[in-house]
Amino acid sequence: MSAPTAPGAAIGILGGGQLGRMLAHAAEQLGFDVHIYTDEEDSPAARVAARAVVADYHDHAALAAFARDVAVVTTEFENVPADAAAALIAAGAVVHPNPRALAIAQDRLEEKRFFAANGLTPAPFAPVETLDELRAALALIGCPAILKTRRLGYDGRGQARLESDRALEYAFAAFNGAPLILEGFCRFEREVSIIAARAADGAFAAYDLCENEHRGGVLARTNVPARCDPAIHVEAAAEARRLMDALDYVGVLTIEFFLMPGGTLIANEMAPRVHNSGHWTIEAALTSQFEQHIRAIAGWPLGATARLCDAEMENLIGEDAARWAALAADPTARLHLYGKREARAGRKMGHVTRLKR
Amino acid sequence: MSAPTAPGAAIGILGGGQLGRMLAHAAEQLGFDVHIYTDEEDSPAARVAARAVVADYHDHAALAAFARDVAVVTTEFENVPADAAAALIAAGAVVHPNPRALAIAQDRLEEKRFFAANGLTPAPFAPVETLDELRAALALIGCPAILKTRRLGYDGRGQARLESDRALEYAFAAFNGAPLILEGFCRFEREVSIIAARAADGAFAAYDLCENEHRGGVLARTNVPARCDPAIHVEAAAEARRLMDALDYVGVLTIEFFLMPGGTLIANEMAPRVHNSGHWTIEAALTSQFEQHIRAIAGWPLGATARLCDAEMENLIGEDAARWAALAADPTARLHLYGKREARAGRKMGHVTRLKR
Hints:
28% helix, D-amino Acid Aminotransferase, Chain A, domain 1
């Protein structure tokens, strides 16, 4: 255990998106400076930070220079190249989450194996590298099933749903030889997520379970608390704690689950970071997920995660953001816009939180 | 009425202190970029903004260049030189609050006259430019009384308390010939403040009355709601509305009152800006005073000012900020640090809000 990072120090964040922007605001509220490292010009996070470096994630010299000026480095996306994290650590940086957590979260197969090894229940899965393996896996797992790339999938990208064992060669060919995983389809009752934090001394705190609604593979809406037995919340938090302890994890981590009709939690995926389904914590929890992550990586005590009221978070995706004037006039809507220059289809442009009291 | 400023535009702020920093965060949450203009290097607000200009407030060329890139300019301190506001307007900028509001707030004598002209009750006052005028004013107003500079006083600076009519020449000489005002001392029951907002279309909204405790002339603590008859709140809000209507004011304005034992509100001073006694609104009101000000100056509808719970705000002044580690471990404390490099005596370094539920 090292001493906590004092206010006035700089926190480094890899990534320039909205999660980085909201992390920056939380860090700044606590008196920190924020330095952003991103490969994107004019990014949402860079525009609210004291310093921004625009460079490639493989530029080890730029990474080393970045590391020199900050007390700790964190990430706002899980697909940070492994060599970037290694270069930062070689330059003497403290990096949270640690490279092992990033590596597991970057590979769906490793992630599923890690879940199973720590007593979580993933959907049935099998690695697929050849068409024959795909046929064998589908025979074992059954239809429907989801064929996914092991790496670099998010928001429903890199996925194909298989309804039968016909035309498998076409489905397989569409992935261009990328390493794949076949997952059994879960006829879930609800999708839920848990957002939890772990401090370097092992202290742990979780927020109330979130209930999520996806549309086209992208999170559309989150409600808290999730409609389920309180025992489910306790189980989800216990599972998060096991994963984080196993990783010696520091910071906020999110696990997305399928809640099955009998009450079983199927661990779908983990995000080693703050998460879209936790945005409600800005207004409706004593400590936001963003402040909580900064507290953990700065070696501060974790904040209280108590929920102040029920809440609903709605994502503003693509052209949804054009509704800003109507939302600004809605007294129930707490509006957040991310400062993205272009409203592309499927792009997360902002969100709205509504408190239910 | 012009169209509201769309997200993605830049908001310009004159001043680089903590109020500018918190205004910047609120503007950024709504999707705006923030440009800071300040004469201070490495200021708290500049470090959280997309762009910062460090230049003199009398540098008209720099002001004109600043004005070109922003949709609207606002100020985080009232002592903006009159020629700075004029230069911005000459360069085509929309400036809120308007120069008349700034001019009145910069001169205690004009302010008192403006209060009286709009039906508010100031303490007894008289202008003082000579020792003879001081003697005459003191004979009229009585002791104790407060001798103040008309201009550039804040946080208790530029003031002397007169307990008797002896040694007046020494008290007078200490002000070096600056224009003065003598004010009768009010044996108040409480100090309270109202924070109110007005939109360009005349829409008005006020927060609940705040009860303030000063120490050494500096705000130490604010509690909401103020302990007083609800009719007092209604009266304070009505007085704020009259002032703002008279000024065709756009944005947030604060009035500090003395609440007298009989229930009379003595208008002490006004601040044409967000105010230290309104920091509790970040956590405990539906819309923070900072977001409210940005909404007003951007031509957006005012947000809801409903208070979510009782709250207490404590300022961290000078060495108070050294308590950050203890405050970080206090689950009832919502900690805000302003990123000031040096903890000088009397300097506002941060604040803590506690929700009372």
